[in-house]
Specification:
Layout: H1 2-20, H2 40-54, H3 58-70, H4 103-116, H5 123-137, H6 157-163, H7 171-179, H8 185-192, E1 199-201, H9 206-210, H10 224-233, E2 243-245, H11 256-262, H12 269-276, H13 278-289, H14 291-306
Antiparallel strand pairs: 1-2
Helix pairs in contact: 2-4, 2-5, 3-5, 8-13, 8-14, 11-13, 12-13, 13-14
The chain binds protoporphyrin IX containing FE (HEM) and 2-acetamido-2-deoxy-beta-D-glucopyranose (3 copies).
One 2-acetamido-2-deoxy-beta-D-glucopyranose is lined by residues 170, 172-173.
């Protein structure tokens, strides 16, 4: 009996330990590819620059990927996976469908990296490097990123639906969401400053123009002239896909976003609420007056957000849209998003 136990003990350990102790993800580090792909960062920068010259908005669109990737089961490239017959991924989730864009820029970066150093640089790390360059190339801060992430083997539409916040969200909801990731109120406000670049759709603002909180009236915190402008851009019953600027300088990463919030000219409800709510207002005010402080806190927030990891097993994908050995699907699934926002 004792012998049997002794024989079984190693087995018990091999099977039980991994379950009990979550497979600790290897620590991320700057310069992770210094030996295996020394030009990785230069290559990412070059492709990003080309993409942003071709289409200036692509910087914002790619930078947004970091948020949508890292919040759903860690920064693991899961949001880049296409749906398969057995898996509904994140691309058609409520916040991503008809909204996330510039996936082709990540494909271009991946292709360039596969040519230089095959199967070495993860798609998850591409998102982190590309986001940083999108900010830096838009006039924002530059910083050293930690690398060494693996790509996930699956993606979950349901998780993305559950987690990603709606543009209707108020500041207290957002504070609670960010707290789940150990991101502070300061991190929330600083990271929202990413809306200093890029666009949003009418789909994301009509409710606050015509039916804020079901009142049948506009959000009273919108400054009247700005409201007129938004009403013209987004008439009731108009095309929800028309886009507007998230701040007054949408190609420049600066603190204009916070000045706009102070003036009641935030585009999204989730933006303006950061100024109207007492717990977040002081940060908005401070960043509107001190761009350097905004940059510093923004970089801190990006690094913290980039540290989110699920600890699940991963791989280095060859193609960011499919797991290795998987088949890309030609047909695109349909998903109707029924009156999610109005
Ligand atoms: C705090 C909660 C947040 C909410 C509720 C939110 C929501 C949104 C919405 C609704 C849009 C416009 C989408 C559309 O209308 O199609 C948008 C755009 C954008 N978001 Fe956020 N966001 C948040 C935080 C963040 C964070 C943390 C980042 C990055 C660090 C980010 C980066 C961006 C960028 C760059 C755009 C513009 C994208 C483009 O022009 O294609 N957002 N966000
Ligand atoms: C924020 O929104 C949540 C969810 O819609 C709601 O329960 C809560 O009362 C709101 N909080 C404030 C301070 O408006
Ligand atoms: C406004 O919102 C309320 C509550 O969600 C809803 O019952 C009502 O039908 C909406 N009105 C319009 C015009 O969409
Ligand atoms: C926006 O465009 C998408 C894709 O082109 C389309 O499927 C969707 O119905 C449009 N949405 C609205 C609200 O017009």
């Amino acid at each position: 009996m004792r012998l049997l136990l002794l024989l079984l003990l190693p087995l018990v350990f091999t099977f039980l330990l991994p379950a009990a102790v979550p497979a600790a993800a290897p620590p991320l580090q700057p310069g992770y590819y210094a030996k295996t792909c020394p030009n990785a960062e230069l290559i990412v920068r070059k492709v990003m620059k080309k993409a942003m010259i071709r289409e200036p908005r692509s910087g914002a669109s790619v930078m947004r990927f970091q948020f949508h990737d890292c919040f759903v089961n860690g920064c693991d490239g899961s949001m880049l996976l296409d749906d398969t017959p057995n898996m509904l991924g994140e691309k058609l989730s409520l916040s991503n469908i008809n909204s996330l864009r510039s996936y082709e820029v990540v494909d271009e970066i991946k292709e360039a990296l596969e040519t230089a150093c095959p199967q070495t640089v993860s798609c998850a790390d591409i998102i982190i490097m590309a986001s940083r360059y999108a900010v830096a190339l838009s006039g924002g801060p530059n910083w050293e990123v930690k690398l060494g992430r693996k790509d996930s083997l699956f993606a979950s539409q349901a998780d993305a639906d559950d987690i990603m916040p709606s543009p209707r969200a108020n500041a207290s909801t957002l504070i609670n969401l960010f707290a789940k990731y150990d991101l502070s109120v300061k991190d929330l406000v600083a990271l929202s400053g990413s809306h200093s670049i890029g666009n949003g759709r009418c789909f994301s603002v009509v409710f606050r123009l015509y039916n804020q909180s079901g009142t049948g009236r506009p959000d009273p915190t919108i400054e009247p002239k700005y409201r007129q402008k938004l009403e013209k851009l987004c008439p009731l019953g108009g095309d929800g896909n028309v886009t507007g600027d998230l701040d007054f300088t949408p190609h420049l990463f600066d603190n204009q976003y916070f000045k706009d919030l102070v003036n009641g000219r935030g585009f999204l409800n989730s933006d303006e609420t950061l100024y109207t709510y007492w717990k977040t207002r002081e940060y908005v005010k401070r960043y509107s007056e001190d761009e350097e402080e905004f940059f510093k806190d923004f970089v801190e927030g990006m690094i913290k957000m980039g540290d989110l990891q699920s600890g699940r097993p991963g791989e280095i994908r060859k193609n960011c849209r499919v797991v290795n050995g998987g088949q890309p699907v030609a047909e695109v699934r349909e998903r109707k998003v029924l009156s999610y926002y109005m």
